[in-house]
Amino acid sequence: MPIKKYTAVIYADAPGADFEKNPAAYIISKQVVDSKTVLNLAMARGGGVAISVMPVK
Fold first, then answer.
1. For the segment 6-47, what is each residue's pLDDT rounded down to a tens digit?
2. Count of CB atoms situated within 10 Å of the CB of 19
3. Longest Cα separation, the chain
C-alpha cells in the first residue's frame, strides 16, 4: 500500500517572535508530508503553531 502524501501549510513563530515584544512575527510555509514526517518547529515564548493538512492532488 503506497504512503499517502499531504500538503501541510504551517503557520509558525518567526525568529524574534515574542508575545510581549513582537507578537505579530510569524512565517507561513508549505511542505509535502506523509505519515512518517517529523516536523521540528521552534516556538517563541507564549507562541504556537497551526498546521492545515490537505491531500496532495
1. 999 999 999 999 999 999 999 999 999 999 999 999 999 999
2. 12
3. 49
Entry field: residues in the chain: 57
Block residue for cell numbers 500538503:
7
Model's pTM, two decimal places? 0.86
Alpha helix segments (H runs only) across 1-57: none
Nearest to 14 by CA among 50, 47, 40: 47
Q: All domains of the chain, ordered by start, with CATH?
A: 6-55 (2.60.40.1180)
Contact assessment for residue 41 and residue 29, using Cβ atoms and an 8 Å cutoff: no
